[in-house]
Amino acid sequence: MSSYSGVVVSDQWLQSQFTQVELRSLKSKFISIKNQNGKFTVGDLPPLMVKLKAFKEMYSEDEIRGILGDQGSDFNNEIDFEGFLRVYLNLQGRATEKSGGRKNSWSFLKATTTTLLHTISESEKSSYVAHINSYLGDDPFLKQYLPLDPATNDLFDLAKDGVLLCKLINVAVPGTIDERAINTKRVINPWERNENHSLCLNSAKAIGCTVVNIGTQDLVEGRPHLVLGLISQIIKIQLLADLNLKKTPQLVELVDDSKDVEELLTLPPDKVLLKWMNFHLQKAGYKKPVTNFSSDLKDGEAYAYLLNVLAPEHCSPATLDTKDPNERAKLVLDHAERMDCKRYLSPKDIVEGSSNLNLAFVAQIFHQRNGLSTDSKKISFAEMMTDDVQTSREERCYRLWINSLGIATYVNNVFEDVRNGWILLEVLDKVSPGTVNWKHASKPPIKMPFRKVENCNQVIRIGKLLKFSLVNVAGNDIVQGNKKLILAFLWQLMRFNILQLLKNLRSHSQGKEMTDADILNWANKKVKSTGRTSHMESFKDKSLSSGIFFLELLSAVEPRVVNWNLVTKGESDDEKKLNATYIISVARKLGCSIFLLPEDIMEVNQKMILTLTASIMFWSLQQPVDDAGGLSSSADASPAPSVSGEDESSSLGGDVSNLSVDDAASDTTVSSQVDNEGSPMPE
């Protein structure tokens, strides 16, 4: 294979939305029309788009022309390749909605925001502004700008420098961002602003947000529908954070036996919230099951019953006696206020069935008073059902990585969601396009068990084709939910993706396979080139726990990104934790999409150390190089909006190449015969 660097798009976020196969195909069609006509105009888009496989049955030429016309496009204007790609993404987003959106997703994550949907809900904006004023009103930096007025566009203006969104992420999942890495000057330059937005988007992915159609430029411009969509996801992740057995073991009261507990473990938070609501409604004598946060709550009756059973001391008979839904909704909110619940919605929002605000309101009621018992036997049983710390950390990492790829299915629990094989096939299709035979795959819901086995057998076959180590492993092991084997398979899949990404970026590699040793050597040479003496012997080198090597590596690829005044010696556990937290935020700020935790650096988890090093390398190799061979670093330079060693930029390369593995440095063996051991890791 000759040296090949792939189709490169200057906007790295935009590039991350396509595989190289897709980019090559779209680029050839774009160039063909441009060569034929001398230029490519907006008017050329409709006839081309309807011929593309993705849109053949979704649009007519007139429909596409109408969409472009509604956006105020001049059909005579010339359009470049990036503009062409943006239109493609917009049409794709609308096509997804036409076909009913994504399946199996959290209700608030499944409809990814797109640049075609320019409407925003003033009620939602008011609610989120109130939330921000409440939770960030005392923030040392933001208090000079708060409280925000929901009647103005102050929210979107304040979001433009990235500080608000970063702080909001930390409210939702404390400790996600090291706030020392946020640029918080009153006036920041374009570079610093871009850094904040890269930090925000990569951190949002790391807490489970879907940010497929949001780039740093969207946030810099403060595009209302995109900013509001991101804020909505962040707030809801905060409100639903405790709706799992690990955080709230009392939820075990909602089920009767161990089988039901297993099912409860697999439910997404919004479904757990519905289950909790129906549990109390049934006790209160409410006959109709609530299946959604919209139409089923419009008349306010379910709320009245729920609040009466949770807080009977504040109960008012008038709430159920009144026939006017608006009056009942008002009484419900009065009742909730007496319980000290934050008011996320108005009577009008209840009557109109605002699903986002109803979900937020029910979550607030749950936090304030969940009405669950503290049966110690049941709680201890629930605690036994949860995974150990290391297994939970690995599951979290792979779940977030898979969700960052932009596949159609949202993963809530890796161990349960992969058991039918479908999600693994979707991931394989992303990281190695063309390897999945979709004619022999069964799409969920799958009723026949042998269909799940067929899917998983195909997963194993493809794994072997990609040279994964799968000793004595069959598809049925995945169907049975063997956690050790699932984690080991996902590690090999993630590692394969990283190596393929790097291979396709390195035009000078002449198609040679990338190995773990190449990443190790690159990192050491990079640090050495700056005159520093730190050295990494392997990805399990215990000296890495101080964090100094990675800070020197980050400084080597971009000198101004590390503030050395904030760096400790990394000698005590506290100092190591400070450095590790800072490393992760600085890498995300640079543009790396990473999913490890500070503990992974402190404990030198070699899998996560490899992904961190590879992500920094991936970002570095994409940067322009000056004549001296170093990174060009002009004052106006800005980092890639979202560089992802594990992201959808992912599926580079149409050919499936054999993975050359240095056994001493890299391979992971999966064997169903060693179930009692931890997942083996390369030496």
UniProtKB/TrEMBL annotation:
Coiled coil stretches, renumbered: none
Region (Disordered): 629-683
Keywords, comma-separated and alphabetical: Actin-binding, Cytoplasm, Cytoskeleton, Repeat
Domain Calponin-homology (CH) residues, every copy: 122-239, 267-370, 392-498, 513-621
GO biological process: actin filament bundle assembly; actin filament network formation
Ranges annotated as biased composition (Low complexity): 629-657
Repeat in keyword set: yes
SUPFAM superfamilies associated with the record: Calponin-homology domain, CH-domain (SSF47576), EF-hand (SSF47473)
Domain of life: Eukaryota
Bias kind Polar residues: ranges: 666-676
Location relative to the cell: Cytoplasm, Cytoskeleton
GO-annotated molecular function: actin filament binding
One Gene Ontology term, aspect cellular component: cytoplasm
Protein name: Dystrophin
Organism (species): Trema orientale (Charcoal tree)
Source organism phylogeny: Eukaryota, Viridiplantae, Streptophyta, Embryophyta, Tracheophyta
